Amino acid sequence: MAKRKVGHTVAGLGEYLKEQRLDSRLSLRQLAEMTGVSNPYLSQIERGLRRPSAQVLQQLSKALRVSADQLYVRAGIVGLDDSTGVTVENAVLNDPLLTERQKQSLLDVYSSFLALNAQAELEPHDSQPGAGANR
Question: What 8-state DSSP symbol labels residue 4?
Answer without folding.
Answer: -
